[in-house]
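FORM 7B: Structural annotation worksheet

SECTION A. Query
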Amino acid sequence: MDFLTILLTAVALSMDAFAVSVCKGLSLKKVCLKSAGIVGLWFGGFQALMPLIGYFVGVQFRSIVDAYTHWIAFALLAIIGINMIREALSEEEDQETACACGALSAKAMFPMAIATSIDALAVGVSFAMGEAGDGMNIFAAVAMIGVITCLLSMIGVKMGSIFGAKYEKKAEILGGVILILLGVKILLEHFGVL
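SECTION B. Predicted structure
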């Protein structure tokens, strides 16, 4: 696999993480380099880890991976999106229990990192199938995927914060809707509708 193909794969894989990062930026009260970096490291780390896992799992479990990744990603994104909308509409939202999508804790970030990177697991399986024929360096490929996703996620957080500061509740609702739509998009792509 050549450099350009890996680069394009990395950018394509990072698009869901970028969109969710925009949602994170919408729901965060204040965005600084540290908060954007946390989001970037979570998403970039998982986008690098998942294809590596998929690569080592390889062909043996391909049917299991392919059969469920779309449902898992859909469920996680839908649950997170619904919770984000519910909390945005709640009259009793205090500062300590701000929207889970706005929080940067492991409890908030882990499911989103999994949801946005689960398709990369299948890509890792495809890397394993093609590696013998073209001598691909899996570590260079996953490093590129991780770095590009990290950078695009950080940009997404900043972009989201610019809009979120002006529209607070509406921005949180929009972020929740976007997450749900991303989950639906994953399902529609799996069934060949998109």
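SECTION C. Observations
The two ends are 26 Å apart (CA to CA). The first helix runs from residue 3 to 27.

SECTION D. Sign-off
Analyst initials: ____
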